[in-house]
Amino acid sequence: MLKRLLAPSEARDVILVLAVSLLLWEAGVRIFQPPPLILPAPSAIVGAFLQTPGLFMRQLGFTLGMTCLGFALAVVLGVLLAVAIVSSKLLERTIYTLLVALNSIPKVALAPLFVIWMGTGTEPKVAIALMLAIFPIVIDTVLGLRSVDPDMLHLARVSRASPLAVLAKIKFPCALPSLFAGMKVGISFALVGAIVGEFVAGSKGLGFQILVAQGQFDTLGVFVCLVLLGIFGTLLFFVLDYAERLCLPWHVSQRGRHSAGD
Amino acid sequence: MPEASTFLGAAHVCLRNVGKTYASPRGPVPAVAGIDLDLGAGEFVSIVGPSGCGKSTLLKLVAGLEGLSAGEIMVDGRRIDGPPDGLGVVFQRDVLLDWRTILQNVLLSVELAGKPTDAYRERALGLLARFGLGSFEHRYPWELSGGMRQRASICRALLSDPQLLLMDEPFGALDAMTRDDLNLELARIWQETRKTLLFITHSIAEAVFLSDRVAMMGRAPGSIMEIVAIDLPRPRSLAVRESAAFSHYVAHIRHHFAELGIVKE
Ligand SMILES: Nc1ncnc2c1ncn2[C@@H]1O[C@H](COP(=O)(O)OP(=O)(O)O)[C@@H](O)[C@H]1O
Ligand SMILES: [Mg+2]
């Protein structure tokens, strides 16, 4: 999978770094023998996963579902919001200014509030994922929509283009690279949001599973969840990276990478 | 010296006492003031002046892209308050869209206007061939050189066969040889189609080579100091630049700018 998503040389580097780190970790644990409660060996983590793979995969599936749902909503709402913001001076001065200001506060602190509002089901998890992911998406998309060369807009006016045509044929394609940049940040935020949602309330997902393992001082169980999160968080990122390459073969960052992915 | 209106055809574009003052955080910025200029139908007029004297502003005013602060501009006898019909514009930066092929870029203005592009395809291909881009129609702008990109942007401006063409230092970013090529091609296409052309440049030689008349603009707020009719036979080849008459025009214009303290003699 990684090989398909990455350029051959990149895939080789990533796999090399991972393999070396794992080997060092395994060797370190065998040589220094830290208490298993502190740091288990990679082989032990794999073993623990293989004992109840179904349980872990179910929890993972739930967490990824919340993440992707929250993220998808964040993309749709984020793009609509960004378009609204660049189309209206009023919205720009109100909503956008507010968003940029709010962006710097630690939004995970709002998670308990979402539980009060929405209960302990799937809604607060999706909502928290959405809330975290939407900020980078809106802010980057607005920057992208604004990055159109003013002379291009002059040409559009000379051609008597409708605002919709300018948006669809000029501004939006021009903003796509920024949108992807925002989405790549947003997808990891969405995963954080889903986990936080499961931490504060819930009975499913890897976040919940981590809390259960913690209650039993089951370090191995926590590590299994962390490793799964690491692997699938990375995969989500690279899926977006791959989509970006498919959508933007013309962009500066992609040129000369045409052979990638096939 | 030749006077302002040596051209005898009907005026296509008239500027009367045109002025533009931009509002900026540091107060009003007068960019151009008191500009009177007539462009005859089918006439090639260049504007030369030092950078910052308001040339681009003047072009945007004629294009209806900026509102006037004073005076009026008439195109085909009608006062404009927006881009007039039958207008083509070329800017210094070619502003081609990177995700469109050269052909799709040339068709963009028609597409933006909501017209069906099929009707213009043949014409677009013909223009591209005309400008030596025949085998590049399906290439992307970033695969082309600066000169080719600017050729494509000229094709885009010519696509709907506008009667009025405005060009803002279109060859300013090109190397000298490419610039010579494009000067020749522009002169040739103008000779054939006889569009009214307002051409902005800071190269005196380029202006003299291409134009029927050259208008000199002074420091901001820019106004037109003098207009020189260029009485060189057409069609002109690059060799005309070695003629005594050509050198005389260039020297005259340079001398004028020197008197204003804009260039050193
Ligand atoms: N949109 C604008 N807002 C404020 N000042 C401007 C604007 N556009 C141009 N100017 C100012 O007007 C003057 C003329 O600019 P411009 O027309 O671009 O000159 P040129 O094309 O001859 O270099 C300059 O001093 C410039 O700073
Ligand atoms: Mg300029």
Main beta-sheet strand count, sense and barrel state of chain A: none
CATH architectural type of chain A:
Orthogonal Bundle
The general outline of chain A is globular
Number of domains of chain B: 2
- What is the overall number of helices of chain A? 11
Succession of helices and strands of chain A? HHHHHHHHHHH
Q: Determine the mean pLDDT of chain B.
A: 93
Percent in helix of chain A = over 70%
Radius of gyration of chain A: 22 Å
The molecules bound to the chains, other than polymers, are: adenosine-5'-diphosphate, magnesium ion
| Strand portion of chain B | 25-35%
Overall, the morphology of chain B is globular
How many individual domains of chain A?
1
Stated plainly, the CATH topology of chain A is called MetI-like fold
Main CATH class of chain A: Mainly Alpha
How can the largest sheet of chain B be summarized? 6 strands, mixed
Q: Name the CATH superfamily classification of the largest domain in chain B.
A: P-loop containing nucleotide triphosphate hydrolases
User: What is the helix/strand order of chain B?
Assistant: EEEHEEEHHHHEHEHEEH
> In whole angstroms, how far apart are the ends of chain A?
12 Å
User: How would you name the oligomeric state of the polypeptide chains in this document?
Assistant: heterodimer
Number of strands of chain B: 10
Family (chain A): Belongs to the binding-protein-dependent transport system permease family.
InterPro entries (chain A): MetI-like, MetI-like_sf
Organism (chain A): Reyranella soli
Keywords (chain A): Cell membrane, Membrane, Transmembrane, Transmembrane helix, Transport
